[in-house]
Amino acid sequence: MNIMKTADQWKDYRILATSDGMKLEDWKGVLLLRPDPQVIWTGKELYSFPGINAVYHRSEKGGGAWEKRKPFPAEWTVNYKDLTFKVKPMGFKHTGLFPEQAVNWDEMRSLISRARAEDKNREIKILNLFAYTGAASVACAKAGAKVTHVDAAKGMVERAGENAKLSGLNEGIRYIVDDCMKFVQREIRRGNKYDGIIMDPPSYGRGPGGEMWKIERDLFGFVCLCAQLLSDKPLFFLINSYTTGLQPAVLKNILTLALGRFKGKTDAYEVGIATEEGIPLPCGASGLFTGDGYED
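RESULT FIELD:
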């Protein structure tokens, strides 16, 4: 039976309704109606919901655009517990934040905090790959870890720095604009090690040199490569996937096979977010290895 971890502790973010391929969200008073591929049920007409600020319309040619209905700021902030993030509607329906990932932010913060409590002199080093706007980087740094944040998109890395400052972090995160594969290969040659690795790889991607990434073909090899960067006593290795059809068990199998030399346990689960309708909205899958050293 699949397990779902549901983000249900938000106060500045709510999903008000879902129907016919769309979700209606309240981002601290700004109402956005966006497509969601998981919403294959119908029953509600959401386009006429009162107070909608903007609707994202897909284009038959690919991509899409926002239809602004009521004035709202070009960007604003939302809080999750003691973390603050910038929200900005962008192309291809994104806002710069995935609220459902709060379940993983909480878990990683707990693992880091516990390790630091057990050994106050231990420096916890975390590597965040395909790190986007840095919510996970901020969460880990807030728990006291030293984070290396890597993404190939300069604009997203700049936004990550803004999110860190909004959460009161002026240090603790190193920002790298680079292809993740090339960065990992260099870190292996340098002999650098990390106590935790996070990755949120795209389904498809193209590197700055024209390199092609396809998650079904390349993920396992990349995880095996990254495993060489783990310290002797790693805290965790987290893989997030939004690729439709990639089951949580696949992520668990990848981690089990790639990290076989480490003691620990591997969990896999769907990630979802609570809705005002009383149903959780599925938002992807995660595989999480939590370790306690090498096998004998």
